Amino acid sequence: MFLLRRITNLLKFSNTNLLIKQQCFRRTALPQQISKDVSSLLGKTSVGHFHTTTKKLFKDEVTLHFVDRNGTKLTIEAEVGDNLLDVAKDADIDGVEGACGGTLACSTCHCIFQEEDFERLGLEDIDEDELDMLDLAFGLTDTSRLVCAIEVTEGMDGIEIKVPIATNDARGA
Known about the structure:
Strand content: 5-15%
Radius of gyration: 21 Å
Order of helices and strands: HHHHEEHEHHEE
Mean pLDDT: 77
CATH topology of the domain at 61-162: Ubiquitin-like (UB roll)
CATH architecture of the domain at 61-162: Roll
Structural class: alpha+beta
Low-confidence stretches: 12-32, 44-56
């Protein structure tokens, strides 16, 4: 509903404006011709389904690149404001467990950031509880973090996050 209202505002002076408003308030599917008109105005060529480029216009999502423990690079879309552990688990990133449920009580969500991203994003500001768990993490580096303690921000668009080849569950320590 929100997206359709935004599109209505974008098409303020279009002939299809009234039809889109009617469809929006009736909560019915948009006719194929309106979908074609809207798609062409927003720069899309696909007509099969109603798609827009609003996620890139309003930057609600960012692209993240995870390198799993096997060295496979996985590109995913993450919503700004989401917890990075939840994003990784939803994408089934191999090696990111979060066994404690994101309570900073284990080190199974330990990941390694590239140095330039680590500094640019201000990830060096680490809570004392997280530091205690990181001390027990396998493959600790200067740019290691527990992803359960990190929120996705717009500045993360395009960063690469590496999963260590093994996990040490710090709860047993």
